[in-house]
Amino acid sequence: MGEDEAGTARAVRQHREVALPIVTGRGGRIVKTMGDGLLLEFPSVVDAVECAIAIQKLMVERNAVIPAARRIVYRVGVHLGDVLIEGEDILGEGVNIAARLEGICEPGGILISGSAHEHVRGRIEVAFVDLGEKALKNIVRPVRVFALGTGAAAPMASGSAKAVAGAPRLSLLVLPFANMGGDPEQEYFVDGVTESLTTDLSRIRGSFVIGRNTAFTYKGKAVDLKQVGRELNVRYVLEGSVQRGGQRMRVNVQLIDAESGSHLWAERFDKPVADLFDMQDEIVARLANALEAQISAAEARRAEGVQNPDAMDLYFQGLASMNEGATPINFDQARAFFVRALEIDPVNVEALVGRATADAWCAGMFGPDDRLTRFASAEADLTKVLSIAPGNAIAHAAMGTLCNVTNRAESGIAQFERALALNRNLAGAHFGVGHAKYCLGRPEETGSPHSRRAPALAA
């Protein structure tokens, strides 16, 4: 304001106008404005928290092209409680608690009260950090406070003993792929791969992928990947190139740790040119699956060095154990990690799905003495997950697997098809449909697109 009062006021107004559709789209309303602040009211605390997350992610994208000294960054506090209504205004301790949470929040972060957390945990796909009870100004009793890891910032209350260090888990930037051949006619294909990969990676549960508009501001530029990681607060950067030579197309990609600049993984996709759109779909599907596995493995390696792992640290270590190979030892080790995660967070959706998957596969493949108990436990876990997160594609795929190994292949097909409607790149679901049809005595149908696609995606 001191440097440019009119410009700052204009920027505040523009940010507010862009965010308004996010608010109204979730049933919220602006109760009043207070300088550069807003008081918002929602009919549902889930809508309120999802709105806060969406706005903070929007601000990351809008600020990416603005010099650091001129960025406007929000703090958000969310509380669930009673209010007094006076005309269009709302008053009372419920409003005051939300305001106090906003006051102690780090810029770019979101803090929610314990009462809000009780209603949103397990229903919103973000990590929560328990900051303990906080004494808030003019609030009689201490309030339990939770920070959200949203990808907008590392939100934590000042002085917190348990803070989130660095960029959020599963945070990623897909840089625009380079057109190595320089042929302008290939540019649409190259950009299409980048955009489709950005979209598909954003379907990974709990991920935060920088949006297309922000990513394309780096197109054609030589960038310092560590600096980009710091600017956008992401852990991983994916860069790649596309080159066409005659009737062959080659795609190179590499995944980089944005904090250290080290290479984590590289892949080359090389095949004859066919239909470009089919090629794009195949390339994106293969890369999305491989990247999810590689990023999960990287998160597991990070978690090994954490002194006091949280539920998600343990989940990633369990996932890594399961990905080591289908053996009883690996499944049991993975299950132990998922159980520890659930002891910390009993409604952690990822850990519930992980435990169910380990139980279903181990019981179905190796027939241990307690196989019926494992089947029952897996069904209970997945039923619980789908009751609180019906759009969880991995849970539907896991339920399909459970149906297949318990002689319910028809139900399995329905579950796999639902999973693929939510995430078309689930290699296991493609395979599961073919396996179910084989079990039903319909081998002639196992040559369907599902079964043809599964090996390529799982490779």
Question: What are the main properties of this structure?
Answer:
3 domains; Rossmann fold; Alpha-Beta Plaits; alpha/beta; 16 helices; four-stranded mixed sheet
Task: Note down, in words, how this protein is organized.
The chain has 459 residues and is of the alpha/beta class. It folds into three domains: 5-149, Nucleotide cyclase, GGDEF domain (Alpha-Beta Plaits), CATH 3.30.70.1230; 171-296, Rossmann fold (3-Layer(aba) Sandwich), CATH 3.40.50.10610; 302-458, Alpha Horseshoe (Serine Threonine Protein Phosphatase 5, Tetratricopeptide repeat). The chain has 16 helices and 14 strands. Strands 9, 10, 11, 12, 13 and 14 form a six-stranded mixed β-sheet that branches.
Proportion of helical residues: 40-55%
Low-confidence stretches: 151-165, 450-459
The topology string of helices and strands comes to HEEHEEEHEHEEEEHEHHEEEHHHHHHHHH
User: For the terminal residues, how far apart are their CA atoms?
Assistant: 55 Å
Strand content: 15-25%
- Main structural class: alpha/beta
Shape: globular
Topology:
Layout: H1 5-25, E1 29-34, E2 37-41, H2 45-63, E3 76-78, E4 84-86, E5 89-91, H3 93-104, E6 110-113, H4 114-120, E7 127-134, E8 143-149, E9 171-174, E10 178-179, H5 187-201, E11 208-209, H6 212-215, H7 225-232, E12 236-245, E13 248-257, E14 263-272, H8 276-304, H9 311-323, H10 328-344, H11 349-366, H12 371-388, H13 393-405, H14 409-422, H15 427-439, H16 449-458
Parallel strand pairs: 3-6, 9-11, 9-12, 10-12
Antiparallel strand pairs: 1-2, 4-5, 6-8, 7-8, 12-13, 13-14
